[in-house]
Design a protein that fits this description.
Length: 370
Protein backbone atom coordinates (compact mmCIF):
# COMPACT_ATOMS: atom_id res chain seq x y z
CA UNK A 1 0.00 0.00 0.00
CA UNK A 2 1.30 3.42 -0.99
CA UNK A 3 1.73 5.60 2.13
CA UNK A 4 0.76 9.05 0.92
CA UNK A 5 -2.30 10.33 -0.93
CA UNK A 6 -3.77 13.70 -1.63
CA UNK A 7 -7.25 12.49 -0.64
CA UNK A 8 -8.32 9.52 1.46
CA UNK A 9 -11.99 8.57 1.10
CA UNK A 10 -13.29 6.45 3.97
CA UNK A 11 -16.15 4.23 2.77
CA UNK A 12 -16.65 2.64 -0.62
CA UNK A 13 -20.44 2.67 -0.96
CA UNK A 14 -22.09 4.59 -3.79
CA UNK A 15 -21.14 7.92 -2.16
CA UNK A 16 -17.44 7.19 -1.52
CA UNK A 17 -17.07 5.56 -4.92
CA UNK A 18 -18.66 8.50 -6.76
CA UNK A 19 -16.45 10.94 -4.83
CA UNK A 20 -13.34 8.92 -5.75
CA UNK A 21 -14.40 9.03 -9.40
CA UNK A 22 -14.79 12.81 -9.49
CA UNK A 23 -11.51 13.35 -7.62
CA UNK A 24 -9.57 10.93 -9.83
CA UNK A 25 -10.98 12.70 -12.90
CA UNK A 26 -9.24 15.85 -11.65
CA UNK A 27 -5.99 13.89 -11.25
CA UNK A 28 -6.20 14.16 -7.45
CA UNK A 29 -4.25 11.21 -6.04
CA UNK A 30 -7.05 9.39 -4.22
CA UNK A 31 -7.39 6.23 -2.14
CA UNK A 32 -10.64 4.64 -0.97
CA UNK A 33 -10.67 2.53 2.22
CA UNK A 34 -13.63 0.26 2.87
CA UNK A 35 -14.00 -1.94 5.94
CA UNK A 36 -15.59 -4.67 3.79
CA UNK A 37 -16.29 -4.94 0.07
CA UNK A 38 -17.14 -2.03 -2.22
CA UNK A 39 -20.91 -1.42 -2.29
CA UNK A 40 -21.87 -4.30 0.00
CA UNK A 41 -23.68 -2.28 2.71
CA UNK A 42 -26.74 -0.05 2.20
CA UNK A 43 -25.92 0.52 -1.46
CA UNK A 44 -26.56 -3.15 -2.24
CA UNK A 45 -30.10 -2.94 -0.79
CA UNK A 46 -31.27 0.04 -2.85
CA UNK A 47 -33.88 -0.17 -5.58
CA UNK A 48 -31.99 2.29 -7.80
CA UNK A 49 -34.72 4.84 -8.53
CA UNK A 50 -33.40 8.27 -9.49
CA UNK A 51 -36.48 9.92 -8.03
CA UNK A 52 -35.57 13.60 -8.17
CA UNK A 53 -39.21 14.65 -8.54
CA UNK A 54 -40.75 11.79 -6.66
CA UNK A 55 -38.60 12.34 -3.54
CA UNK A 56 -38.77 16.15 -3.51
CA UNK A 57 -42.34 16.58 -2.29
CA UNK A 58 -42.00 19.03 0.61
CA UNK A 59 -38.53 20.24 -0.42
CA UNK A 60 -38.70 21.72 -3.92
CA UNK A 61 -36.64 24.77 -2.92
CA UNK A 62 -33.24 23.18 -2.22
CA UNK A 63 -33.41 19.41 -2.43
CA UNK A 64 -35.03 19.35 -5.88
CA UNK A 65 -32.43 21.45 -7.79
CA UNK A 66 -29.63 19.40 -6.19
CA UNK A 67 -31.34 16.09 -6.93
CA UNK A 68 -32.22 17.16 -10.46
CA UNK A 69 -28.57 18.13 -11.14
CA UNK A 70 -27.55 14.68 -9.98
CA UNK A 71 -30.26 12.89 -11.93
CA UNK A 72 -29.31 14.76 -15.12
CA UNK A 73 -25.63 13.86 -14.64
CA UNK A 74 -26.50 10.17 -14.99
CA UNK A 75 -27.60 10.64 -18.61
CA UNK A 76 -23.97 11.27 -19.60
CA UNK A 77 -22.40 9.14 -16.85
CA UNK A 78 -23.94 5.91 -18.09
CA UNK A 79 -21.72 6.04 -21.21
CA UNK A 80 -18.74 7.71 -19.53
CA UNK A 81 -18.59 5.06 -16.78
CA UNK A 82 -19.05 2.23 -19.25
CA UNK A 83 -16.13 3.49 -21.32
CA UNK A 84 -13.88 3.73 -18.26
CA UNK A 85 -14.90 0.52 -16.48
CA UNK A 86 -16.71 -1.77 -18.93
CA UNK A 87 -19.53 -2.01 -16.35
CA UNK A 88 -23.07 -1.24 -17.55
CA UNK A 89 -24.97 0.66 -14.82
CA UNK A 90 -28.36 -0.60 -16.08
CA UNK A 91 -29.84 2.82 -16.82
CA UNK A 92 -33.52 2.15 -17.46
CA UNK A 93 -35.89 4.68 -18.99
CA UNK A 94 -39.63 4.58 -18.41
CA UNK A 95 -39.95 6.71 -15.31
CA UNK A 96 -42.36 6.52 -12.40
CA UNK A 97 -46.15 6.35 -12.20
CA UNK A 98 -47.09 7.71 -8.76
CA UNK A 99 -50.51 6.20 -8.24
CA UNK A 100 -53.47 7.76 -6.44
CA UNK A 101 -56.23 5.62 -4.96
CA UNK A 102 -58.05 8.26 -2.94
CA UNK A 103 -58.76 11.96 -3.21
CA UNK A 104 -56.24 12.47 -0.42
CA UNK A 105 -53.56 10.67 -2.48
CA UNK A 106 -54.44 12.91 -5.40
CA UNK A 107 -54.16 16.03 -3.23
CA UNK A 108 -50.76 14.88 -1.94
CA UNK A 109 -49.52 14.67 -5.52
CA UNK A 110 -50.57 18.25 -6.35
CA UNK A 111 -47.19 19.87 -5.47
CA UNK A 112 -45.53 17.53 -7.98
CA UNK A 113 -47.90 18.49 -10.77
CA UNK A 114 -46.63 22.09 -10.67
CA UNK A 115 -43.40 20.81 -12.27
CA UNK A 116 -43.58 21.00 -16.10
CA UNK A 117 -41.88 17.59 -16.26
CA UNK A 118 -44.78 15.86 -14.44
CA UNK A 119 -48.13 15.05 -15.98
CA UNK A 120 -51.45 13.90 -14.45
CA UNK A 121 -52.90 10.80 -16.11
CA UNK A 122 -56.48 9.60 -15.64
CA UNK A 123 -57.12 5.98 -14.72
CA UNK A 124 -57.77 4.81 -18.30
CA UNK A 125 -54.52 6.42 -19.52
CA UNK A 126 -52.59 4.69 -16.75
CA UNK A 127 -54.07 1.32 -17.73
CA UNK A 128 -53.35 2.05 -21.39
CA UNK A 129 -49.67 2.54 -20.42
CA UNK A 130 -49.47 -0.35 -17.96
CA UNK A 131 -52.19 -2.92 -18.39
CA UNK A 132 -51.35 -4.74 -15.14
CA UNK A 133 -52.03 -1.72 -12.91
CA UNK A 134 -55.01 -2.12 -10.61
CA UNK A 135 -58.14 -0.50 -12.13
CA UNK A 136 -58.90 0.90 -8.65
CA UNK A 137 -56.34 3.69 -9.24
CA UNK A 138 -57.98 7.10 -9.79
CA UNK A 139 -54.97 8.16 -11.85
CA UNK A 140 -51.26 8.83 -11.51
CA UNK A 141 -48.61 11.52 -11.64
CA UNK A 142 -46.38 10.43 -14.51
CA UNK A 143 -42.70 11.38 -14.13
CA UNK A 144 -40.78 10.24 -17.23
CA UNK A 145 -37.44 11.67 -15.98
CA UNK A 146 -37.35 9.61 -12.76
CA UNK A 147 -35.50 6.71 -14.39
CA UNK A 148 -33.54 3.98 -12.58
CA UNK A 149 -30.14 2.27 -12.45
CA UNK A 150 -28.74 -0.90 -10.89
CA UNK A 151 -27.16 0.32 -7.61
CA UNK A 152 -24.49 -2.39 -7.25
CA UNK A 153 -23.37 -2.01 -10.83
CA UNK A 154 -23.33 1.76 -10.55
CA UNK A 155 -21.17 1.63 -7.43
CA UNK A 156 -18.83 -0.91 -9.03
CA UNK A 157 -18.64 1.20 -12.15
CA UNK A 158 -17.76 4.37 -10.19
CA UNK A 159 -15.07 2.49 -8.24
CA UNK A 160 -13.57 0.77 -11.29
CA UNK A 161 -13.65 4.02 -13.29
CA UNK A 162 -11.89 5.81 -10.43
CA UNK A 163 -9.28 3.04 -10.46
CA UNK A 164 -8.86 3.33 -14.23
CA UNK A 165 -8.16 7.04 -13.68
CA UNK A 166 -5.47 6.28 -11.08
CA UNK A 167 -7.30 5.96 -7.74
CA UNK A 168 -6.39 3.14 -5.35
CA UNK A 169 -9.17 1.02 -3.83
CA UNK A 170 -8.54 -0.88 -0.61
CA UNK A 171 -11.22 -3.36 0.47
CA UNK A 172 -11.18 -4.97 3.94
CA UNK A 173 -9.40 -1.91 5.32
CA UNK A 174 -11.54 -0.59 8.20
CA UNK A 175 -10.44 2.86 9.36
CA UNK A 176 -10.23 3.20 13.14
CA UNK A 177 -9.08 6.77 13.64
CA UNK A 178 -7.67 9.88 12.02
CA UNK A 179 -4.90 11.93 13.52
CA UNK A 180 -3.57 15.35 12.51
CA UNK A 181 0.22 15.52 12.20
CA UNK A 182 2.21 18.41 10.75
CA UNK A 183 -0.66 19.68 8.60
CA UNK A 184 -1.53 16.27 7.16
CA UNK A 185 -3.69 13.38 8.42
CA UNK A 186 -2.56 9.96 9.49
CA UNK A 187 -5.33 7.47 8.78
CA UNK A 188 -5.11 4.40 10.95
CA UNK A 189 -6.48 1.33 9.17
CA UNK A 190 -6.51 -2.29 10.28
CA UNK A 191 -3.80 -2.94 7.66
CA UNK A 192 -1.49 -0.05 8.57
CA UNK A 193 -1.30 3.73 8.45
CA UNK A 194 -1.45 6.09 5.48
CA UNK A 195 -1.08 9.83 5.17
CA UNK A 196 -3.38 12.20 3.29
CA UNK A 197 -3.87 15.92 2.83
CA UNK A 198 -7.70 15.64 2.66
CA UNK A 199 -9.96 13.12 4.40
CA UNK A 200 -13.50 12.43 3.20
CA UNK A 201 -15.86 10.61 5.57
CA UNK A 202 -18.33 8.64 3.41
CA UNK A 203 -19.21 5.84 5.79
CA UNK A 204 -23.02 5.92 5.42
CA UNK A 205 -25.06 4.90 8.45
CA UNK A 206 -21.88 3.63 10.14
CA UNK A 207 -20.49 7.17 10.53
CA UNK A 208 -21.25 7.66 14.23
CA UNK A 209 -17.94 6.48 15.66
CA UNK A 210 -15.92 8.61 13.22
CA UNK A 211 -18.23 11.58 13.89
CA UNK A 212 -17.56 11.20 17.61
CA UNK A 213 -13.86 10.85 16.99
CA UNK A 214 -13.91 14.04 14.86
CA UNK A 215 -15.91 15.90 17.56
CA UNK A 216 -19.01 16.26 15.39
CA UNK A 217 -22.12 16.24 17.53
CA UNK A 218 -24.62 14.96 14.92
CA UNK A 219 -25.46 11.24 14.71
CA UNK A 220 -26.87 9.08 11.95
CA UNK A 221 -29.84 6.85 12.70
CA UNK A 222 -30.89 3.80 10.69
CA UNK A 223 -34.20 3.43 8.90
CA UNK A 224 -34.28 -0.20 7.89
CA UNK A 225 -35.79 -1.09 4.51
CA UNK A 226 -36.77 -4.63 3.54
CA UNK A 227 -37.40 -5.54 -0.10
CA UNK A 228 -38.31 -8.50 -2.28
CA UNK A 229 -36.53 -9.26 -5.54
CA UNK A 230 -39.00 -11.13 -7.75
CA UNK A 231 -39.19 -12.63 -11.24
CA UNK A 232 -41.98 -12.91 -13.80
CA UNK A 233 -42.25 -15.32 -16.76
CA UNK A 234 -42.65 -12.37 -19.13
CA UNK A 235 -41.98 -8.62 -18.80
CA UNK A 236 -44.88 -7.17 -16.79
CA UNK A 237 -44.00 -3.49 -16.36
CA UNK A 238 -42.25 -0.77 -18.33
CA UNK A 239 -42.59 1.91 -15.64
CA UNK A 240 -41.94 1.96 -11.90
CA UNK A 241 -45.18 1.90 -9.90
CA UNK A 242 -45.11 3.94 -6.68
CA UNK A 243 -47.66 4.44 -3.95
CA UNK A 244 -47.32 5.56 -0.36
CA UNK A 245 -43.52 5.07 -0.14
CA UNK A 246 -43.78 1.55 -1.66
CA UNK A 247 -42.86 0.66 -5.21
CA UNK A 248 -42.39 -1.99 -7.88
CA UNK A 249 -39.31 -1.25 -9.98
CA UNK A 250 -38.76 -3.23 -13.21
CA UNK A 251 -35.06 -3.71 -13.90
CA UNK A 252 -33.12 -4.22 -17.10
CA UNK A 253 -32.03 -7.67 -15.93
CA UNK A 254 -35.61 -9.07 -15.93
CA UNK A 255 -36.18 -8.86 -12.16
CA UNK A 256 -38.49 -6.51 -10.28
CA UNK A 257 -37.89 -4.94 -6.88
CA UNK A 258 -40.82 -4.69 -4.48
CA UNK A 259 -39.88 -2.30 -1.71
CA UNK A 260 -39.59 -1.15 0.87
CA UNK A 261 -40.49 -1.11 4.55
CA UNK A 262 -39.47 1.81 6.79
CA UNK A 263 -38.40 0.56 10.24
CA UNK A 264 -36.92 3.35 12.37
CA UNK A 265 -33.93 2.78 14.65
CA UNK A 266 -33.48 -0.89 13.79
CA UNK A 267 -29.80 -1.77 13.35
CA UNK A 268 -30.45 -5.37 12.26
CA UNK A 269 -30.31 -6.41 8.60
CA UNK A 270 -32.79 -9.26 8.91
CA UNK A 271 -36.06 -9.53 6.96
CA UNK A 272 -39.24 -10.21 8.94
CA UNK A 273 -42.34 -12.14 7.84
CA UNK A 274 -44.36 -9.07 8.77
CA UNK A 275 -42.22 -7.00 6.39
CA UNK A 276 -42.68 -9.49 3.55
CA UNK A 277 -46.43 -9.66 4.15
CA UNK A 278 -46.69 -5.86 4.09
CA UNK A 279 -44.78 -5.68 0.81
CA UNK A 280 -46.87 -8.39 -0.86
CA UNK A 281 -50.09 -6.60 0.12
CA UNK A 282 -48.80 -3.22 -1.13
CA UNK A 283 -47.61 -4.80 -4.40
CA UNK A 284 -50.98 -6.49 -5.00
CA UNK A 285 -52.77 -3.17 -4.43
CA UNK A 286 -50.71 -1.59 -7.21
CA UNK A 287 -50.62 -4.62 -9.48
CA UNK A 288 -52.89 -7.62 -8.71
CA UNK A 289 -50.70 -9.92 -10.87
CA UNK A 290 -47.92 -9.47 -8.28
CA UNK A 291 -49.40 -12.47 -6.43
CA UNK A 292 -48.10 -14.74 -9.23
CA UNK A 293 -44.49 -13.49 -9.14
CA UNK A 294 -41.69 -15.78 -7.97
CA UNK A 295 -39.50 -14.66 -5.06
CA UNK A 296 -35.85 -14.59 -6.07
CA UNK A 297 -34.49 -13.28 -2.75
CA UNK A 298 -35.19 -10.93 0.13
CA UNK A 299 -32.88 -8.10 1.14
CA UNK A 300 -32.59 -5.47 3.85
CA UNK A 301 -30.49 -2.36 4.26
CA UNK A 302 -30.13 0.56 6.65
CA UNK A 303 -30.93 3.96 5.19
CA UNK A 304 -28.58 6.53 6.75
CA UNK A 305 -31.06 8.94 8.35
CA UNK A 306 -30.36 12.48 9.58
CA UNK A 307 -32.44 14.71 11.89
CA UNK A 308 -34.04 16.58 8.95
CA UNK A 309 -33.86 14.04 6.13
CA UNK A 310 -31.21 15.98 4.22
CA UNK A 311 -27.66 14.62 3.78
CA UNK A 312 -24.53 15.99 5.42
CA UNK A 313 -22.22 17.19 2.64
CA UNK A 314 -19.56 19.71 3.50
CA UNK A 315 -16.50 20.70 5.43
CA UNK A 316 -15.81 19.93 9.05
CA UNK A 317 -16.74 23.22 10.82
CA UNK A 318 -13.22 23.53 12.30
CA UNK A 319 -11.06 21.98 9.61
CA UNK A 320 -11.53 22.49 5.89
CA UNK A 321 -9.35 19.50 5.04
CA UNK A 322 -11.87 17.10 6.57
CA UNK A 323 -14.99 16.62 4.49
CA UNK A 324 -18.18 14.77 5.26
CA UNK A 325 -20.57 13.08 2.80
CA UNK A 326 -23.10 10.84 4.49
CA UNK A 327 -26.72 10.63 5.62
CA UNK A 328 -28.22 10.27 2.15
CA UNK A 329 -31.25 8.47 3.63
CA UNK A 330 -33.57 7.28 0.79
CA UNK A 331 -31.59 8.91 -2.01
CA UNK A 332 -27.91 7.98 -2.04
CA UNK A 333 -28.02 6.46 -5.51
CA UNK A 334 -29.82 9.50 -6.90
CA UNK A 335 -27.54 12.01 -5.13
CA UNK A 336 -24.16 10.30 -5.69
CA UNK A 337 -23.05 12.32 -8.75
CA UNK A 338 -23.97 15.72 -7.27
CA UNK A 339 -22.35 14.74 -3.95
CA UNK A 340 -19.15 13.65 -5.72
CA UNK A 341 -19.06 16.92 -7.65
CA UNK A 342 -19.68 18.99 -4.53
CA UNK A 343 -16.86 17.32 -2.57
CA UNK A 344 -14.58 17.78 -5.59
CA UNK A 345 -15.49 21.48 -5.67
CA UNK A 346 -14.82 21.92 -1.94
CA UNK A 347 -11.35 20.43 -2.40
CA UNK A 348 -10.61 22.47 -5.53
CA UNK A 349 -12.13 25.54 -3.83
CA UNK A 350 -14.51 26.09 -6.74
CA UNK A 351 -17.86 27.89 -6.54
CA UNK A 352 -20.72 25.91 -4.99
CA UNK A 353 -24.29 27.30 -4.76
CA UNK A 354 -24.46 28.85 -1.28
CA UNK A 355 -27.93 27.41 -0.62
CA UNK A 356 -26.51 23.89 -1.05
CA UNK A 357 -23.65 24.64 1.34
CA UNK A 358 -26.12 25.92 3.96
CA UNK A 359 -28.71 23.17 3.48
CA UNK A 360 -26.27 20.28 3.76
CA UNK A 361 -23.65 21.58 6.21
CA UNK A 362 -22.96 19.19 9.05
CA UNK A 363 -23.38 21.80 11.81
CA UNK A 364 -26.66 23.29 10.50
CA UNK A 365 -28.71 22.32 13.55
CA UNK A 366 -26.29 24.00 15.97
CA UNK A 367 -26.25 27.15 13.80
CA UNK A 368 -30.04 27.44 13.90
CA UNK A 369 -30.10 26.87 17.67
CA UNK A 370 -27.32 29.37 18.41
C1 LIG B 1 -34.48 -0.70 0.90
C2 LIG B 1 -33.74 0.50 0.37
C3 LIG B 1 -34.09 1.03 -0.85
C4 LIG B 1 -33.43 2.16 -1.34
N1 LIG B 1 -33.75 2.63 -2.58
C5 LIG B 1 -33.11 3.72 -3.07
C6 LIG B 1 -33.42 4.20 -4.38
O1 LIG B 1 -34.27 3.65 -5.07
N2 LIG B 1 -32.75 5.31 -4.82
C7 LIG B 1 -31.81 5.94 -4.08
O2 LIG B 1 -31.26 6.95 -4.53
N3 LIG B 1 -31.48 5.49 -2.85
C8 LIG B 1 -32.11 4.40 -2.32
N4 LIG B 1 -31.81 3.93 -1.08
C9 LIG B 1 -30.85 4.71 -0.26
C10 LIG B 1 -29.42 4.37 -0.63
O3 LIG B 1 -29.24 2.98 -0.66
C11 LIG B 1 -28.45 4.99 0.40
O4 LIG B 1 -28.74 6.37 0.57
C12 LIG B 1 -27.00 4.84 -0.10
O5 LIG B 1 -26.73 3.51 -0.38
C13 LIG B 1 -26.02 5.36 0.94
O6 LIG B 1 -24.76 5.15 0.40
P1 LIG B 1 -23.43 5.34 1.26
O7 LIG B 1 -22.29 5.15 0.34
O8 LIG B 1 -23.54 6.60 2.04
O9 LIG B 1 -23.52 4.17 2.35
P2 LIG B 1 -23.12 2.62 2.23
O10 LIG B 1 -23.59 2.01 0.98
O11 LIG B 1 -23.57 1.99 3.51
O12 LIG B 1 -21.55 2.66 2.18
C14 LIG B 1 -20.77 3.03 3.29
C15 LIG B 1 -19.49 2.22 3.22
O13 LIG B 1 -18.61 2.65 4.26
C16 LIG B 1 -17.92 1.53 4.76
N5 LIG B 1 -17.46 1.85 6.11
C17 LIG B 1 -18.21 2.16 7.18
N6 LIG B 1 -17.42 2.43 8.26
C18 LIG B 1 -16.14 2.31 7.82
C19 LIG B 1 -14.85 2.46 8.42
N7 LIG B 1 -14.71 2.83 9.71
N8 LIG B 1 -13.75 2.23 7.66
C20 LIG B 1 -13.85 1.89 6.36
N9 LIG B 1 -15.05 1.72 5.74
C21 LIG B 1 -16.16 1.92 6.45
C22 LIG B 1 -18.93 0.40 4.72
O14 LIG B 1 -18.28 -0.86 4.67
C23 LIG B 1 -19.72 0.72 3.45
O15 LIG B 1 -19.25 0.00 2.31
C24 LIG B 1 -32.41 2.79 -0.57
C25 LIG B 1 -32.06 2.24 0.66
C26 LIG B 1 -32.70 1.10 1.13
C27 LIG B 1 -32.29 0.51 2.44
Amino acid sequence: MNKQYEAAVIGGGIIGSAIAYYLAKEKIDTAVFDGGRIGEKTTSAAAGMLGAHSESIGDFSVFFPFARTSQRAYAALKDELYEQSGVDIGYKKGGILKLAYTEEDQKNLEPLLVQPTVQWLESEDVIYMEKEVSPDALGAAYIPDDVSVLPNRTCESFAKSAQALGASIFENHPVYSIEKQAGNYIIHTAQGDVEAKYVVVATGVLSNSLFKHLVLSERLSPVKGESLIVRADKPLLKHTLFHDSCYIVPRNNGTLVIGATMVENDWSDTVSLEGIQFLIEKAKTMMPAAAQLTIDRVIAGLRPGTFDGRPFIGRHPEDKHILVACGHYRNGILLAPATGQMIRDFILEKDIPSEWIEAFRVDRRQLVMA
